[in-house]
TrEMBL record:
Name this polypeptide is given: Nucleoside diphosphate kinase
Catalytic activity: a 2'-deoxyribonucleoside 5'-diphosphate + ATP = a 2'-deoxyribonucleoside 5'-triphosphate + ADP
Record EC number: 2.7.4.6
Sites where the protein binds ATP: 9, 58, 93, 99, 113, 123
Family: Belongs to the NDK family.
Domain of life: Eukaryota
Keywords of the record: ATP-binding, Cytoplasm, Kinase, Magnesium, Metal-binding, Nucleotide metabolism, Nucleotide-binding, Transferase
GO function terms (MF aspect): ATP binding; metal ion binding; nucleoside diphosphate kinase activity
Species name: Popillia japonica (Japanese beetle)
Active site residues per record: 126 (pros-phosphohistidine intermediate)
Lineage of origin: Eukaryota, Metazoa, Ecdysozoa, Arthropoda, Hexapoda
Amino acid sequence: LQLTLAILKPHLVANPLAVKDIRNLILNNNFKIIKWRRHNLTLEDAEKFYSEHKTKFFYNRLVTFMTSGASEMYILARENAISERENAISEWRKLMGPTKVFKTQFEVPTSIRGIYGYSDTRNATHGSDSEESAKREIAIFFPEFDYE
Ligand code: ATP
Ligand code: MG
């Protein structure tokens, strides 16, 4: 079964109605919540999680934001009664919309980032971009989770 790691970022978690709305979106789009937790990222978590972005101009901003308050991490799978397609990763990214928030607000206004994104950094949610990343990211926040 394909799994993905979704994160509701701090500005979203600070807004209980937004969290409720996103959870409904998750469940109404045939995702199943395998595990979830609320956790305030430590600097160590953030540096590990975003190590691929270490050299980017937005890295400090990103790490500061991601450690600024509680996030919620979800391990998601997708249930599809018709076909058993393993598409949790791409379907969650589709629901989130593109990274760049201002473009997204015009192009995909009904996506999560279209609705709840404030800026390219505070873009509401995270979603793994491949099976390899999902495995790596799940291990960071759910070290006891047995992937198989
Ligand atoms: P995510 O990995 O969070 O699902 P993504 O894969 O769409 O998002 P990445 O390129 O992996 O985007 O960037 C990781 C995170 O870094 C983004 O979610 C965003 O918070 C931040 N970020 C990316 N690009 C920019 C930018 N140009 N300016 C500011 N912050 C950015
Ligand atoms: Mg990414």
